[in-house]
Amino acid sequence: SILIVDFGSQVTQLIARRVREAGVYSEIAPYTMAEAAFARMKPKGIILSGSPASVPDAGSPRAPQALFEAGIPILGICYGQQVMTEQLGGEVRPGHETGEGGEFGRAFLTVTQPCALFDGLWEVGERHQVWMSHGDKVTQFAPGFEIVATSDGAPFAVIADEARRFYGIQFHPEVVHTPDGAKLIANFTRHVCGLAGDWTMAEFRATKIAEIREQVGDGKVICGLSGGVDSAVAAVLIHEAIGEQLTCVFVDHGLMRQGEAEQVVSLFKGSYNIPLVHRDVEELFLSGLAEVTDPEAKRKFIGKTFIDVFEEEAKAIGGADFLAQGTLYPDVIESVSFTGGPSVTIKSHHNVGGLPARMNMKLVEPLRELFKDEVRELGRELGLPEAFVGRHPFPGPGLAIRIPGEVTKERCDILRKADAIYLEEIRNAGLYDAIWQAFAVLLPVKTVGVMGDARTYDSVCGLRAVTSTDGMTADVYPFDATFLTNVATRIVNEVRGINRVVYDYTSKPPGTIEWE
Ligand code: XMP
């Protein structure tokens, strides 16, 4: 296994992900707990993460010195390179002192020496694109190291001590903007640490099941299903671990897409035989949403009402000791601020986040370290149907935030029809999997049209489709005009209440993916 020592970088989980992709098991430990993790895991290699901190600052984090004396390979990334340099007797200076500033974004380095990290990948003399993000830099490397690659802004872009098998990389190999980054990390795990790379999602499943059993004991677990992939995968995994100790509650707020609620019920009750409480509370949600037009007010109402209903059901089944959630890693980073600064609330996300504190329950979150596509892979591993696992993400507040202005049952029904046509056309064109999210929105605007010689005065439907890897940034999906024209024609012809269709050409940022 590989121990990843975390110094608080936003992308530490990406390192773990690359290590998993190389077929190697890893664990992340905060630097304060790294020594204990090391003793427990007995890893074959260590990776030191980046950090928002600065090595020259007093009080900035350090790796346990013992790690450098353990005789196993170490890869330091960015801050990890700098802290290793400092702890082994080299020098790191703040960017402002060297007068050269930092390096941020795309950079090119030149390979100057062979190195085990470059095996079968990079040759001496070649130039390669990498992604830099640093202010400070190594100004004097530690004894035993030599430069193996260099860039204009970072003379010590990659340094290596092949005898001790210590490597320091100034750039970020874990991000996709370093095209060969995943291969560099795989070279570290395979060639340097000698790990075979045969770890799989099946083993992740087995490990998590053991962890869940250990955590829960003979306690009772309750899980809120949202209809989405994450909570479903979490529930199926937990059910496999503890069986009937798990009860799922599906708060059906009536703001789902067409056919979705039925699918959830048949999947859980029918295919998996998981104890499921299905509460149909459409009426409650729609009456509460009447005349609510402010996006945040909608989100807050839905979040709060969801919790109220969930709590009622939890009481009705006699309470539970644990609350299971399908929290993913991107949810974790969005909610934790390592820099300490207050971050602006763009939207109040509804994903039962308020529940644990209010209900005084401990959390079971088996997907916390995974990214969306890894959750899908785990879902397949657990036998969930492909059509369910591959489904586009859907926000907790559902269609309510895709109907700017007032939400009514009638408008939800209109939107469901338009959305279903749009998605059907996308599926038929074989584009569904190439798109991160595609959906229709129903605008609170009426425009004039003409159909069969008669005047119409109906709502406008907006279509959105984006590509993304994590929902944090997104590009507009470039449909061809014929496709969009066809969808527009079908929607106007088949959905009463819509007489005009527009396509949303805004990327994120500056737009968000959802309209509210
Ligand atoms: P935005 O609109 O913020 O959305 O660009 C980013 C991603 O998050 C989803 N989303 C939500 N998911 N609860 C959720 O579970 C929410 O309240 C929520 N709001 C937005 C959105 O669909 C996109 O995938």
Please render the helix and strand layout as text:
Layout: E1 2-6, H1 12-21, E2 26-30, H2 34-41, E3 45-48, E4 74-77, H3 79-87, E5 91-93, H4 95-98, E6 103-111, E7 127-134, E8 137-140, E9 146-151, E10 158-161, E11 166-169, H5 181-192, H6 201-216, E12 221-225, H7 229-242, E13 246-252, H8 260-272, E14 276-280, H9 282-289, H10 295-316, E15 322-324, H11 329-335, H12 355-359, E16 362-364, H13 372-381, H14 386-389, H15 409-428, E17 437-451, E18 454-467, E19 475-476, H16 481-494, E20 498-503
Parallel strand pairs: 1-2, 1-3, 3-4, 4-11, 12-13, 12-15, 13-14, 15-16, 18-20
Antiparallel strand pairs: 5-8, 6-7, 6-9, 9-10, 10-11, 17-18, 18-19
Helix pairs in contact: 1-5, 6-7, 6-13, 7-13, 15-16
Question: Mind explaining what this structure looks like?
Answer:
This protein has 516 residues and is an alpha/beta fold. It folds into 3 domains: 2-192, Class I glutamine amidotransferase (GATase) domain (Rossmann fold, 3-Layer(aba) Sandwich); 201-389, Rossmann fold (3-Layer(aba) Sandwich), CATH 3.40.50; 408-503, GMP Synthetase, Chain A, domain 3. 34% of the residues lie in helices and 22% in strands. It is built from 16 helices and 20 strands. The chain has helices at 12-21, 34-41, 79-87, 95-98, 181-192, 201-216, 229-242, 260-272, 282-289, 295-316, 329-335, 355-359, 372-381, 386-389, 409-428, 481-494; strands at residues 2-6, 26-30, 45-48, 74-77, 91-93, 103-111, 127-134, 137-140, 146-151, 158-161, 166-169, 221-225, 246-252, 276-280, 322-324, 362-364, 437-451, 454-467, 475-476, 498-503. The strands form 4 sheets. The protein has a 9-stranded mixed beta sheet, sandwiched between helices. The protein has a 5-stranded parallel beta sheet with strand order 14-13-12-15-16, with helices on both faces. Strands 17, 18, 19 and 20 form a 4-stranded mixed beta sheet that branches. The radius of gyration is 26 Å and the shape is globular. Mean pLDDT is 92; it is low at 336-343. The structure holds xanthosine-5'-monophosphate. Xanthosine-5'-monophosphate binds next to loops. Xanthosine-5'-monophosphate (XMP) is lined by residues 347, 349-351, 393, 395-397, 437, 471, 508, 512-514. Catalyzes the synthesis of GMP from XMP. Keywords: ATP-binding, Glutamine amidotransferase, GMP biosynthesis, Ligase, Nucleotide-binding, Purine biosynthesis. ATP binds at residues 226-232. It catalyses: XMP + L-glutamine + ATP + H2O = GMP + L-glutamate + AMP + diphosphate + 2 H(+). Residues 199-391 form the GMPS ATP-PPase domain.
